[in-house]
Design a protein that fits this description.
Layout: H1 14-31, H2 41-56, E1 69-74, E2 81-86, E3 90-95, H3 110-116, E4 131-135, E5 138-148, E6 153-158, E7 163-169, E8 174-181, E9 189-196, E10 198-199, E11 214-222, E12 228-234, E13 241-243, E14 249-254, H4 263-266, E15 271-278, H5 279-287, E16 301-303, E17 311-317, E18 323-325, E19 331-335, E20 342-346, H6 350-354, E21 364-366, E22 374-379, E23 384-389, E24 394-399, H7 400-407, E25 415-420, E26 425-430, E27 442-447, E28 463-469, E29 476-483, E30 490-494, H8 512-520, E31 530-534, E32 537-545, E33 548-549, E34 553-557, E35 561-568, E36 577-581, E37 586-590, E38 595-601, E39 606-611, E40 624-630
Parallel strand pairs: 12-16, 32-35, 34-40
Antiparallel strand pairs: 1-2, 1-30, 2-3, 4-5, 5-6, 6-7, 8-9, 9-11, 10-11, 11-12, 13-14, 14-15, 15-17, 18-19, 19-20, 20-21, 22-23, 23-24, 24-25, 26-27, 27-28, 28-29, 31-32, 32-33, 35-38, 36-37, 36-39, 39-40
The structure holds (dicuprio-$l^{3}-sulfanyl)-sulfanyl-copper (RUQ) and dinuclear copper ion.
Dinuclear copper ion (CUA) binds near residues 577, 620 and 623.
Length: about 625
C-alpha cells in the first residue's frame, strides 16, 4: 500500500515504482522457467526480431506522416468531441457537439440550431462516451454517438463530414451517462443509461422525502432516426453499459441499488448489481403493447424491474462502474470501483439465466482481485484485459482465462503486470478493443490528473492522456498527452475504416433547409447576391470566393431581423471562409461548397463591418464588407 493524500492521489516515489516493475518483471521470467545463462546467437536473433517488432509499434509519427488510427476523444464538460491522431496523440480536429463554438458558429448558425432542435437554447454540455456505429461487431465508419450528461441528450456525428447531424433530448430521465451501440448484426440501436433517479412522473408533485416513485431508465434509441424506440424502467440507478456480440443482450452497472439520495446511503450496501436486458423480450413486450407512458409524452416505457421477464439482476460487489464486453464476445466485465475486484459474467450463460435454469450469481465465472478502484477494462487480441485502478494510479494487465481458472480454485496467477500511470486513470481504451478487430497494439489511459507531469499552468491543470504500447509482453508507457477538460472516454479506429469527404456536396442534408429557403426566394445560391426584405425580416444572400464576398455592402433598417446566408464557391480543399459581423456576436464557418446562415437583430445604427475570420488568402484581411444600419 502506498500513501494517499486526501484526494486519494498516489504519492509513491518513482524509485518504488521502478522497483515494483522490476519485481514483476523478474517474477514473470521466473515463472517462465528462465535461468541466467550466456546469450546464444538464437537469443540475439530473437531479441533483434523483438526490437524490430517494437520499432514497428513506435509512437513517433514524423512531420508529414499520417497516423494509423483515428482517435475519437470525448471533451467532457467542454461538451465537444475531438479527433486525435494515434499514435502521435496529435489533436487533429474538434467537433463541437453540445457546446457553443465561435470558430465554426456551432450553436449560433441556423443549421446547427435546427440540429440541436428543442435544446438549441442550451449552450452547455458534458460529453462522456463516444462510440462508433458497427456492422457485425466491427466499426463501419458511419457515425459516432455521444451522450450529454449535463442536459440528458444524445448526439450523432456523421463521419463523412465529421459534423454533428442529429441531437435529441431523452425524455423521462435525467443525466444520460453510459452510452454504447448495438454491435451485432449492426447498430440498429444506441443504448444509454439515465443515471439520476427522478419521480415518475416528474411533474412537481413528487417529494424530496418519499422517493418510492423515483426511477432510472435504460434508453434504446433508433440509430437512424435518432428517436427513442423504448425505455426500460429498472430497480436501482444505471451507470455504464455495453452490448454483446450476438445481438441479444445489453448490460448495465448500477451503483445505487439502495436508491439512496445521499452519498452515505448510496454506498451503504456491500453489493449492487449488473442488470441484463434481453433485446428480444423487450421488443416482444413493445409489440404486445406492454408499456406505459409518462410525463405526457408518447415514449413507451417497459417495466424491467425485479421479477420482470425482460431483465435479470446479477449481484456484484460494491458500486460497480465500467461495463465492458470482451472482443471475443464471451464476457461482460463489471468493474468494482469500491471493491478491488472485477466481475466477469459469462454471456453464454445468460440464456440459462433468462430461462431460470441458473441463479444470477451462477453467471459469474471470475472475480479477480486487481487493486484499488477498478473503473474500466479494455482488451487486446490475446485474451488479456487491462483495468484502470483509480486509487492505485495503475493499470492492471490480467489474463481472463487464468482469472476464470483461479475462480474455480486452481492455483494460478492471473495478474500479468501492473503499470504506474500519472495520475488516477478513469477510462482506458485499446486500439479497436471494443470490436472484433481488437488488435492489441495501443492502450490509452485517460488520467484525471497530471499533477507534476507538465509545466505548471496555474491552479487549473490539464488532464494527462497516456499512450501505452501493449504489443509486447509488457505494457510500456510511451507518451504523455496533456488534454483540457476532460476526455472521459475514447475509441481508436483504424484509418482504413474512414473516408471523410474533402469538400461538401451541394445536396448535403445539413444545409438542405437553407437551400430550400433560397429556392423559395428564387435565389440561386451558387451565383446570386441579393437582399430580400419581407416586413422587418431581411435575408442577405451572398457568395464567397477567396478573397471576396459576393456583396461588399448592404443596407438594413434599425431593428430588422437579418439573416445572412453565405455560400462558399471555392472548390479548393481546405479553403474555408468565415463570416463575422463585428460587435454582434455573429461568427460562423463556411466550408468549401457549403452554405451557412446566421440570424441576428440589427440593433446598432451606423456602419458595421463584416469580415472573414477563417484564414483563406493573402488578402484575407481585406475580405470584408459593410452593413449600413439606417436609423
Ligand atoms: S465514466 S471514469 Cu462518465 Cu465513463 Cu468512468
Ligand atoms: Cu475568406 Cu478569410
Amino acid at each position: 500500500m502506498h500513501n494517499n493524500d486526501d484526494t486519494g492521489q498516489d504519492k509513491k516515489s518513482g524509485l518504488q515504482s521502478a522497483e515494483r516493475r522490476n519485481f514483476i518483471g523478474r517474477t514473470a521470467l521466473l515463472g517462465a522457467g528462465a535461468v541466467a545463462a550466456p546469450m546464444t546467437a538464437t537469443m540475439f536473433a530473437t531479441m533483434a526480431k523483438a526490437n524490430a517488432a517494437e520499432a514497428a509499434n513506435s509512437p513517433v509519427v514524423h512531420p508529414g506522416e499520417l497516423d494509423e488510427y483515428y482517435g475519437f476523444w470525448s471533451g467532457g464538460h467542454s461538451g465537444e468531441v475531438r479527433i486525435m491522431g494515434v499514435p502521435s496523440m496529435r489533436e487533429l480536429m474538434r467537433i463541437p457537439v453540445f457546446n457553443t463554438d465561435s470558430a465554426t458558429g456551432w450553436g449560433l448558425t441556423n443549421e446547427s440550431k435546427r440540429i440541436k432542435g428543442d435544446s438549441a437554447h442550451l449552450l452547455t454540455g458534458d460529453s462522456h462516451h463516444p462510440h462508433m456505429s458497427m456492422t457485425d461487431g466491427r466499426y463501419n465508419g458511419k457515425y459516432v454517438f455521444i451522450n450529454d450528461k449535463a442536459n440528458s441528450r444524445v448526439a450523432r456525428i456523421r463521419c463523412d463530414v465529421m459534423k454533428t447531424d442529429k441531437m435529441i433530448t431523452v425524455p423521462n430521465v435525467q443525466a444520460i451517462h453510459g452510452l454504447r451501440v448495438q454491435k451485432v448484426p449492426y447498430t440498429k440501436y444506441v443504448i444509454c443509461n439515465g443515471e439520476f433517479e427522478i419521480p415518475m412522473n416528474n411533474d412537481g408533485k413528487g417529494s424530496l422525502e418519499d422517493v418510492s416513485s423515483y426511477r432510472s431508465l435504460f434508453n434504446v434509441i433508433d440509430a437512424e432516426t435518432m428517436e427513442v424506440a423504448f425505455q426500460v424502467m429498472v430497480d436501482g440507478n444505471l451507470d455504464n453499459t455495453d452490448a454483446d456480440y450476438d445481438g441479444k443482450y445489453f448490460a448495465s452497472t448500477c451503483y445505487n441499488s439502495e436508491m439512496g439520495m445521499t452519498l452515505s446511503d448510496m454506498i451503504a450496501s456491500e453489493r449492487d448489481h449488473v442488470v441484463v436486458f434481453s433485446l428480444e423480450r423487450c421488443e416482444a413486450a413493445l409489440k404486445a403493447g406492454k408499456f406505459k407512458t409518462y410525463n405526457g409524452n408518447k415514449v413507451p416505457v417497459l417495466d424491467g424491474r425485479k421479477g420482470s421477464e425482460l431483465t435479470r439482476y446479477i449481484p456484484v460487489p460494491k458500486s460497480p462502474h465500467g461495463l465492458n464486453t470482451s472482443p471475443n464476445g464471451e464476457y461482460f466485465v463489471a468493474n468494482g470501483k469500491l471493491s478491488p475486484t472485477v466481475s466477469v459474467i459469462s454471456i453464454k450463460k445468460l440464456d440459462a439465466l433468462f430461462n431460470d435454469k441458473i441463479q444470477p450469481r451462477d453467471a459469474i465465472v471470475a472475480e479477480p482481485e486487481l487493486g484499488l478502484g477498478p473503473l474500466h477494462t479494455a482488451f487486446d487480441d490475446k485474451g488479456n484485459a487491462y483495468t484502470t485502478l483509480f486509487l492505485d494510479s495503475q493499470i492492471a494487465k490480467w489474463s481472463v482465462k487464468d482469472a476464470i481458472r483461479a475462480y474455480k480454485g486452481e492455483k494460478v496467477n492471473y495478474l500479468r503486470q501492473k503499470l504506474d500511470v500519472h495520475y488516477q486513470p478513469g477510462h482506458n481504451h485499446t486500439s479497436q478493443g471494443e470490436t472484433r478487430d481488437a488488435d492489441g497494439k495501443w492502450l490509452v489511459s485517460l488520467c484525471k490528473f497530471s499533477k507534476d507531469r507538465f509545466l505548471p499552468v496555474g491552479p487549473l491543470r490539464p488532464e494527462n492522456d497516456q499512450l501505452i504500447d501493449i504489443s509486447g509482453d509488457e505494457m510500456k508507457l510511451v507518451h504523455d498527452g496533456p488534454t483540457f477538460a476532460e476526455p472521459h472516454d475514447c475509441i481508436m479506429v483504424h484509418r482504413s475504416k474512414l473516408k471523410p469527404q474533402k469538400l461538401w456536396t451541394r445536396d448535403d442534408p445539413i444545409f438542405a433547409e437553407t437551400v430550400a429557403m433560397a429556392e423559395q426566394d428564387g435565389v440561386n445560391l451558387m451565383a446570386d447576391n441579393k437582399v430580400i426584405r419581407k416586413g422587418n425580416k431581411v435575408t442577405v444572400y451572398m457568395t464567397s470566393i477567396a478573397p471576396t464576398y459576393g456583396l461588399s455592402e448592404f443596407k438594413v433598417k434599425l431593428g430588422d431581423e437579418v439573416t445572412v446566408v453565405v455560400t462558399n464557391l471555392d472548390q479548393v480543399e481546405d479553403v474555408t471562409h468565415g463570416f463575422c459581423m463585428t460587435n454582434h456576436g455573429v461568427q460562423m464557418e463556411i466550408g468549401p461548397q457549403a452554405t451557412s446562415s446566421i440570424t441576428f437583430i440589427a440593433d446598432k445604427p451606423g456602419v458595421q463591418w463584416y469580415y472573414c475570420n477563417w484564414f483563406c488568402h493573402a488578402l484575407h484581411m481585406e475580405m470584408r464588407g459593410r452593413m449600413l444600419v439606417e436609423a
